[in-house]
Amino acid sequence: MKKLLVILIAIFILIQFIPANLPDISDNNPNDLLLSANVPADISKMLKASCYDCHSNETVYPWYSYVAPVSFLVSRDTREGRKKLNFSNWKKLSKVKKAKYLDEIIDEVTEGDMPMLIYPITHPDAKLSEKDRESINIWAENYADSLFED
Amino acid sequence: MKKIILLSSLLFVAAIFMSISATETIVNNTIPGNDKYIVPEKVQTIIKNKCFDCHNSHSKSIKGKMKLKFDKMSDLKTHKLLAKLDNISESVTDGDMPPKKAIKKYPDLKLTPEEVKTLTDWVGGLIKDIAGE
After folding, report:
1. How far apart are CA B37 and CA B85, in angstroms?
2. Does A94 lie at the interface with B, CB-CB under 8 angstroms?
3. What is the CB neighbour count within 10 angstroms for residue A132?
4. Which bin fits A19, alpha (ψ -120 to 50), beta or left (φ > 0)?
5. What is the pLDDT of residue B90?
6. For the residues of chain B, what is the DSSP string, one character each?
7. For residue A99, which residues of chain B lie inside 8 Å, CB to CB?
8. Side-chain half-sphere CA neighbours of B44 within 13 A
9. Nearest chain B Cα to A105, which residue?
10. Nearest residue in A to B82, CA atom
11. Of chain B's two ends, which shows fewer C-beta atoms within 10 Å, N or C?
12. Which residues neighbour A78 within 8 Å (Cβ) at sequence distance 6 or greater?
């Protein structure tokens, strides 16, 4: 028993030396969605709280995200989230891509696939109520519509 | 014997009509204002043979039906239509569609590189026309 504990502690200490490569943070994002589109304050607040940690360059890393093995998880999720959709690069997207992402946002938010289940456990503010989800969907739908109004 | 010939030729004619109507469903319903956006025959054939069975409003594939219904595309708003078109292009380019599982069962469903190009060229041109970019 004691031996097992020692081994576990040793492993824990050793994995701290494996670099987690947390994606870089940047506050300077002139192409960000919230700067380039006219997003209502309540929606903007929800997006910041529920999406921006993984879907923007403005990730806020809590202390435990620097501790392995959590750091590996956070690193992977942030990297994959940004790759899928990065709100910091929004302005650079074509209208068609914007429409596609807005459509996907509606799908994900409606089906409850986003935010990922594990996320609100440590970020209670990120939890979206039914009403929140509806507001986001209405916003996304209207925004997508407005992209192709002549 | 005569009866059989008559019956089978009737069936044959019916089959032709049915395949025409399936094609026309795609032509007439794919694109709003279809007189402007005609779906080339080459594209229709690919869609009919490799996509339509899952992606129509009567499909048994719930997921396929949910994602895309070729016979109901004219009901979509512009932004939704563009999103769907862009997804078509992406999923055939990445080889995500037709699904690998389906191809394993029906190898003929696999798109040839030429077919992928035909589809993506068509989608690309259409998106340009509709979105103006």
Report:
1. 13
2. yes
3. 17
4. beta
5. 93
6. -HHHHHHHHHHHHHHHHHHHHHHHHHHHHHSSSTTTSPPPHHHHHHHHHHTTTTSSTT-S-HHHHHH--GGGGGGS-HHHHHHHHHHHHHHHHTT-SS-HHHHHH-GGGSPPHHHHHHHHHHHHHHHHHHH--
7. 79-80, 82-83, 86
8. 19
9. B83
10. A96
11. N
12. A22, A23, A53, A54, A59
Exposed e or buried b per residue across B89-108, where buried means at least 16 C-beta atoms within 10 angstroms of its C-beta: bebbeeeebbbeebbeeeee
Query: What global pTM score does this model have?
Result: 0.78
Using one digit for the tens of pLDDT, what is the confidence trace for B48-102? 899 998 998 888 888 898 888 888 887 888 899 999 999 999 999 999 999 999 9
A150/chain B closest Cα distance in angstroms = 11
| Joined tokens for residue B23 | 């094609």
What's the alpha-carbon Rg for chain B, to the nearest Å?
16
User: Residue A81: which residues within 8 A CB-CB, separation 6 or more?
Assistant: A53, A54, A55
- Which two structure tokens, joined as six digits, stand for A111? 């089906």
* Residue whose tokens read 């750091």: A71
Residue A73 forms contact with B (CB below 8 Å): no
Query: pLDDT of A119-142, one tens digit each?
Result: 999 999 999 999 999 999 999 999
Q: How far apart are CA B66 and CA B88, in angstroms?
A: 14
- For residue A69, is the peptide bond before it cis, meaning its omega torsion is within 30 degrees of 0? yes
CA angle A26, A30, A34 (to 5 degrees): 95
**Longest CA–CA separation in chain B, Å:** 61
Burial class (CB in 10 A: 0-12, 13-18, 19+), A36: middle
SS (H, E, C) A76-95: HHHHHHHHHCCHHHHHHCCH
